[in-house]
Amino acid sequence: MKTQDVAAQVPPVTKAVAGGLYGAARGWAMLAVALSVFLALLDYAIANVALPDIARDLHASSAASIWVVNAYQMASLVTLLPLAALGSRIGFARLCRAGIVLFMLASLLCAVATNLPFLVMARVLQGIGGACIMSVNIALVRFIYPHAEIGRGVALNGVVVALGVATGPTVAAIVLTMGAWPWLFWINLPMGALALGVAAFALPDTPRTATMPDSTGSLLCVLAFGLCILGGDALAHQQGVLLSSLLLAAGGVAGVALIRRERHEAHPILPVDLLGKPAFTLAFISGFAGFIASNFYIVSMPFMLHDTLGLSSAQTGLLITPWPIGILFSAPVIRRVADRYEAGVLSSIGLGITACGFLLLWRLPVHPGVWDIAWRTAVAGWGFGFFQPPNNRAMMVAAPAARSGGASGMVQVARQAGQTVGAMGVAAFFSLFAIEATHDCLLMAACVALTAALISASRLLFGVSA
């Protein structure tokens, strides 16, 4: 009997094999990954739209309501690596399913919240649930697809990420026209139930490590990331140089202690063993810088469209949409070439196109038309969609199969840490260059994207391939 025929018969729990899954087994497994990733990203995106309503109903200030978003992002980022290590121990599929359950429970708590502190704490739980899902999704893709086709799976995963980001504001607008903001969280229950139902039988049972994650290393990881985020955010918003410096210094000390400790661990929380591989490190830095650039655009562009150009909120949302559309249109192309050519070539081309798109947006005419903005945004989005899959693939294949959890966690750290630093950069620009801040952010986005392209291309110069 052929391997494809065996794999096509989906058992209650699909066993991962070295050559990946085939036929219906692969389709069901990727559907489970897609549904869970879409759930986590959609909820992050839709909360932004509801902030004014949440602040009004819970009698909170606009500044305080921002923590509804920050709590999710911060909880997710600081727990990514510890949870990725836990996934290696208990199984990636089991952690993903646990994440969906926790996400649904937290969504229920968010929906019934009657005050801001309770809602923020529920969002922290939601962020941890989202991190359970996101920390292992690329690792699962590695076991779903055979080695020669990992790029295809990563590209498909990128499409789901783009859809989650793109449809978030639209879903939020539809829900808010029909009901109050708690319904943004109620809708997670049927969506989560569907994702959990498919994940229960379709996700592959992956190899597991023999030891539990290092609890001290996990605590140091949370402290290092958390304190650095708080310090950087305070510095960006000019909330006191002394406090910001103390937080950053404390985060730095925790980070140094983490590195020193993890160097001697067989399965480190912070994968210092993987960071010692040039192919992995250059891909990580390229991804990190790429997401800094993208968030300089994503965070600042709505302000430019609404405040500088005087467009309505609906028009602003419409003119941001070409970014994820560009990402979606790049998927068919990158799926065909991600496994055939080196990431040093493909990702550098993608980042270069993204930089050109941002530069074209920076050079918009004084009174641009809708088409002037839309096609430039689509060019930047297409390049970004072309950059991500081969770069993520390079990180995964540079790691041994036994370290897939650590590699998957670092893929998400590159994304979320880059987005966080980019958002901080925009806040700093708004504080320092109030008049031309939005315009300058686009130039900065282009410069950082070009820098990321050069870092990516250095893989060719140093003979690093993946």
From TrEMBL:
Record-annotated Major facilitator superfamily (MFS) profile domain positions: 29-466
Lineage: Bacteria, Pseudomonadati, Pseudomonadota, Alphaproteobacteria, Acetobacterales
Single annotated GO MF: transmembrane transporter activity
Residue ranges of the TM segments: 28-46, 66-86, 98-118, 124-145, 154-177, 183-203, 215-235, 241-259, 279-299, 311-331, 343-362, 417-435, 442-462
Record GO cellular component, one term: membrane
Taxonomic source organism: Acetobacter peroxydans
Claim: Nucleotide-binding is one of the keywords in the record: no
Principal location: membrane
Compartments where located: Membrane
Protein name: MFS transporter
Topological relation to the membrane, as annotated: Multi-pass membrane protein
InterPro entries reported for this sequence: MFS, MFS_dom, MFS_trans_sf
Keywords from the UniProt entry: Membrane, Transmembrane, Transmembrane helix, Transport
Superkingdom, natural source: Bacteria
